[in-house]
């Protein structure tokens, strides 16, 4: 390949990605979102290639007056949106945010208790992820019968038996509020701390549509900034505890970052302004739209995972029981052929051989593109037809694309959609 070939191919790949995400497909994967174009523009302003080593007011390299101000503004805005005393924004991703939390509050060889994959527990809390790489031993939290969270009585028993240094809560699928106050009580009994992983829930927490984990007793909260939050790829840790904040500060610098991405930090600041201006409306619309989508899917005969009281969800996410499709990833691949984007997830029921047993859907992106509850009957019909084993999903794809093209712009920003 010549250099020109490579550049040409990259241009084509960027155009392909735009076509897939911005024109052809409806994105029901809750792990992604569209950004405010003003935030996205921050990623190509020349900030990202500049150094940022050191503390504001005492940067090591010269000429960083503007960049150190961006760092301060972003951290202050994150703290304001999340109603927290301290925000650490020099974090490359949600996965690394969890590593920051482990480094701050545990030692290699310690035991932690974390949600298992059958209730959406993330790999970063387990052997294959940052917990395991830091040599923590993870004991899976017991699962509540008929729910999608932990069983508190069993958790108390397990915690007294294994004496964890930390109990984590929050997952890649969250269908009902987690019992954080009771978890904190158990943690206090055994001398553990509580980490709330809000990778997915952070938008609902920012928009006051979900109980606030720090107010409920979590010692610290980590999250990704590009899922329900709709910002650039990155991570954040927030806490109200001054000593934990000081440890996180030393982990960020000089610990795990020297220079961080100031372009991403500026994009995060723009995203926070959106949350201050329009966040409550956005969070409420994500939840209302997910509830309607679930209702319509159920009416169309799609088997949904249900909570103990029969409700499919109280959040912006929902899950299809995917055994009939051979598993969640198999169902997601089928929907991809219908131009509907989604992915697999674990559910606390019969496993499926060689696949996860659930299909995860969510509303962050469709709502930000301007869809609401009133659009869900039509969308649920397209999803149900895409999943119908008796029809070819490719016959649904053109209709999905035609429907997708009716929506556009980025809603719930400090400006109106453009
Ligand atoms: N924690 C949970 C619960 C997640 O679902 C994810 C998803 O990727 C992460 C952490 C990691 O976040 P990131 O993709 O920002 O590294």
From TrEMBL:
Record has Hydrolase as a keyword: no
SUPFAM superfamilies linked to this entry: PLP-dependent transferases
Needed cofactors: pyridoxal 5'-phosphate
Listed Gene3D superfamilies: Aspartate Aminotransferase, domain 1, Type I PLP-dependent aspartate aminotransferase-like (Major domain)
Domain Serine hydroxymethyltransferase-like: 24-382
Swiss-Prot/TrEMBL keywords: Pyridoxal phosphate
Entry's family note: Belongs to the SHMT family.
Identification of the protein by name: Serine hydroxymethyltransferase
Organism from which the protein derives: Ornithinimicrobium pekingense
């Amino acid at each position: 390949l010549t250099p020109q070939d490579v550049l040409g191919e990259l241009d084509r790949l960027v155009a392909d990605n735009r076509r897939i995400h911005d024109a052809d497909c409806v994105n029901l994967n809750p792990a992604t979102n569209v950004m405010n174009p003003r935030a996205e523009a921050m990623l190509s302003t020349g900030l990202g290639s500049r150094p940022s080593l050191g503390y504001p007011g005492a940067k090591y390299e010269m000429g960083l007056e503007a960049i150190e101000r961006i760092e301060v503004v972003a951290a202050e805005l994150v703290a304001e949106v999340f109603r927290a005393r301290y925000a650490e924004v020099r974090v490359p991703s949600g996965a690394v945010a969890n590593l920051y939390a482990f480094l701050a509050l545990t030692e290699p060889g310690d035991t932690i208790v974390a949600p298992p994959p059958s209730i959406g527990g993330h790999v970063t809390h387990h052997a294959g992820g940052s917990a395991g790489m830091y040599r923590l031993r993870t004991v899976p939290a017991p699962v509540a019968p008929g729910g999608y969270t932990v069983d508190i009585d069993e958790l108390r028993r397990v915690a007294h038996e294994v004496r964890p240094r930390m109990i984590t809560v929050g997952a890649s699928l969250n269908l009902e509020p987690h019992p954080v106050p009771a978890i904190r009580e158990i943690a206090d009994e055994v001398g553990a701390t509580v980490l709330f992983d809000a990778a997915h829930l952070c938008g609902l927490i920012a928009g006051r549509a979900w109980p606030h984990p720090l107010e409920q007793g979590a010692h610290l909260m980590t999250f990704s900034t590009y899922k329900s939050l709709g910002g650039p790829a990155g991570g954040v840790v927030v806490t109200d505890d001054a000593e934990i904040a000081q440890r996180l500060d030393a982990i960020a610098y000089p610990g795990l970052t020297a220079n961080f991405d100031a372009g991403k930090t500026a994009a995060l600041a723009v995203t926070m302004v959106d949350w201050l201006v329009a966040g409550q409306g956005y969070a409420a619309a994500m939840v209302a739209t997910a509830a309607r989508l679930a209702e319509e899917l159920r009416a169309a005969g799609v088997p949904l995972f249900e909570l103990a009281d029969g409700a499919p969800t109280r959040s912006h996410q929902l899950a299809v029981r995917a055994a009939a499709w051979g598993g969640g990833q198999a169902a997601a691949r089928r929907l991809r052929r219908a131009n509907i984007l989604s992915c697999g997830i674990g559910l606390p029921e019969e496993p499926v051989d060689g696949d996860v047993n659930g299909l995860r859907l969510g509303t962050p992106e469709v709502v930000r593109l301007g869809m609401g509850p009133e659009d869900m009957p039509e969308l649920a019909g397209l999803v149900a037809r895409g999943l119908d084993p008796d029809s070819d999903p490719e016959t649904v794809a053109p209709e999905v694309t035609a429907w997708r093209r009716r929506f556009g712009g980025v809603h719930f920003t400090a400006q109106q959609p453009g």
